[in-house]
Write a structure and sequence with these properties.
Oligomer: single chain
CATH topology: Creatine Kinase, Chain A, domain 2
Largest sheet: 9 strands, antiparallel
Structural class: alpha+beta
Number of helices: 17
Radius of gyration: 21 Å
Shape: globular
Low-confidence stretches: none
């Protein structure tokens, strides 16, 4: 049972790994549409798709009698609130392996979606559907979240039902290593928003934003970029942050109850009458940590969450960009961001979804910082010297970002251009 701050600190310490054991975990979400009517697929269609994926060796994950996901080895496919699907990959050694894993998944998904007449959309925000048009599913926690989340953020339901992102999970070898990495990943959030912007079209119109997904997340309950994250956040301070953070829900046997009126410290003190005042288990702590929706967060690893989902041609670019900096060139990148002002970073964070590369940070625009960090990342990946079977190192995955910077044109700009020319919905689907 978890009843002290020290236990939470120990939980974070248990994530410490030797540098040689560092792994990379990639998660990415996709929208699915019926080809016939350009509407998001319903739960019945999800079940058909999951049944077809079983033929590729996936195993069902059930909640009561309902299938809510699949697993195979260390990989999981999970169902999001509006029937988006997310692949959570295995923890792998390098980008070559992680990218190959994603390509294998793509192959399987394409076979199944083609057979079922489903289109895939790789964007940060649903470009077609209105919120009230999106079907839900019987996953229990989402019923509670749909009721409670809007209380703390006006666009929370848009987040749940209309966004897709790419997340990266990385390791740390000490508390000091965590502090450095967490400082970097929070400092570069505005740059990640601008560089990976891919959600400009909303309800078949140009939204005026390059990353409307990021705009939504800024107005979502339990989200944001707290100033606390720039104040030398160590395991103890993060534990205190977690203890004082409101509970979203509590799983009690096979049901979920709202935790809206409690913080996690109440749970630790045995003050939740609805569950007979029981104390939290490690599973309860893990659940609580996964419902803190900040731009980055700590579990037994660091999770980076600021990138819009993008197409398969650039899927590996975001992970490579960050791994080059965080695993290959940490000290140089840390030295660069250490002098940045927290208030200026947070201001750029709010401006970046709309202004993109034109956003100012520390007297330079985000295009300048994107280019600077890309070069640092490239050096880091070169330092890693990890080659594929063709003798290429991990820098091959940065080619997409180099084009973005050279042309000053993001995926969001391409989306605006393609769609504005003919307003053909097919232009929004993965080819």
């Amino acid at each position: 049972m978890i009843n002290s701050k020290e236990q939470i600190i120990e939980y974070f310490k248990s994530g410490i790994k030797k540098t040689k054991d560092f792994r990379i975990g990639i998660e990415h979400e996709k929208f699915l549409f019926n080809n016939q009517d350009n509407k998001r697929i319903n739960y019945s269609k999800v079940k058909d798709m999951f049944a077809a994926l079983l033929e590729f060796g996936w195993n069902p994950i059930l909640e009561k009698e309902n299938i809510i996901g699949l697993n195979k080895g260390g990989k999981n496919i999970t169902l999001e609130p509006g029937n988006q699907i997310e692949l959570s990959g295995e923890k792998l050694n390098h980008i070559h392996d992680a990218c190959a894993e994603s390509q294998d998944y793509l192959f399987e998904l394409r076979q199944v979606t083609k057979k079922l007449d489903i289109n895939i959309v790789s964007a940060g925000f649903d470009p077609i559907s209105k919120l009230d048009e999106i079907p839900n599913n019987p996953k229990q926690r989402y019923e509670l979240m749909t009721k409670d989340m809007p209380l703390g953020g006006e666009l929370s339901l848009d987040m749940m039902y209309r966004t897709c992102g790419t997340q990266l999970n990385i390791d740390y070898n000490s508390e000091q290593d965590f502090i450095k990495k967490f400082k970097i990943v929070n400092s570069i959030v505005p740059i990640s928003i601008a560089l990976f912007a891919n959600s400009s079209i909303v309800e078949k119109k140009n939204s005026g934003y390059l990353s409307y997904r990021s705009k939504v997340w800024q107005n979502t309950s339990r989200g944001g970029l707290p100033k606390l994250f720039f104040e030398g956040l160590n395991f103890e301070k993060y534990a205190e942050f977690v203890m004082n953070f409101p509970i979203l829900f509590i799983q009690n046997k096979d049901t979920y109850i709202s935790g809206q009126k409690y913080i996690f410290k109440d749970f630790m003190d045995g003050k939740i009458n609805e569950i007979s005042n029981r104390l939290p288990t490690e599973n309860d702590l893990t659940t609580h940590l996964s419902t803190i929706f900040t731009e980055n967060r700590l579990k037994k690893y660091i999770e980076l969450r600021s990138m819009d989902t993008c197409g398969w041609d650039c899927l590996c670019a975001g992970p490579a960009f960050n791994i080059g900096m965080l695993y290959g060139n940490l000290d140089e990148v840390h030295e660069l961001v250490s002098g940045w002002d927290a208030d200026k970073i947070i201001n750029a964070y709010f401006e970046a979804p709309k202004k993109g590369f034109n956003t100012q940070l520390m007297g330079k625009d985000l295009l300048y910082w994107s280019s600077t960090l890309l070069n640092l990342s490239k050096r880091g990946l070169e330092n890693r010297e990890i080659l594929n079977k063709h003798g290429k190192d991990e820098t091959v995955f940065l080619n997409h970002l180099q084009k973005v910077i050279d042309n000053k044109t993001t995926n969001a700009d391409h989306m605006i251009s393609k769609f504005s020319n003919n307003e053909d919905l097919s232009e929004l689907y993965d080819k």
